[in-house]
Amino acid sequence: MSLVVSSPARGVVTVTLDVPERRNALSADLVGALSEALGDLGGDPAVRAVLLAHTGPAFCSGADLKAPPAPHDFVRLLRQVVELPKPVIARVDGHVRAGGIGLLGACDMAVAGPGASFALTEVHIGVAPAVISLTLLPRVDPAAASRYCLTGERFEGPEAARIGLVTAYASDVDATLGPLLDGVRRAAPGALAETKKLLTARVLDAFDDQSDAVVALSARLFGSAEAREGMAAFLERRERPWVL
């Protein structure tokens, strides 16, 4: 099973990415399972919020290069998170890479712990953060986006909080999540849904305007000779030929 969905705990359902042997990489199967789960939870009146968690040392390592989702399916999942009429809150205490950062950016709030690290590594394997730009760029400081998208550098939880990728960094993730979850539990469900619509309107405008273009760009780059060589080098644990 790639996903574990808990029963509601005072209105909060925990959805856990549970493919630790693949570093919770976004395979076609995992994207499909997460989309199906969110579809069920979005219409459940017993659910006030979704807590997105993970097993193992990685929150999400990005696209599964052996069984990747179709770009349009990944766009559909990101939009589903943004449009869900319940807050989605990420609990991150592991590594987040590439497409995993796009999933994180689609969430309404996120708390990162001391085990979290982040990197936008697309340029290192010959592609670009095309699809994830839809959720990343509205959230992150522009100067930081330029730095980390162009260099692929790794950064840690405190920096992720500073640039706006996560809501907070905390040594005790669950203690920091407590007030966030209590706050949404005290909120009227209808008011919560309408407030989320206000907060995500501009992001959804970007989906409307740019989804087709970023899907086409992603497909073109992943099919390029440069990307084929970059992904082969990554899977074979060897250096890419363009590294100086």
TrEMBL record:
Gene3D superfamilies: 2-enoyl-CoA Hydratase, Chain A, domain 1 (3.90.226.10), Lyase 2-enoyl-coa Hydratase, Chain A, domain 2 (1.10.12.10). CDD domains: crotonase-like. It comes from Streptomyces alfalfae. This is Enoyl-CoA hydratase. NCBIfam families: PRK07827.1. It holds the Pfam family ECH_1. Belongs to the enoyl-CoA hydratase/isomerase family.
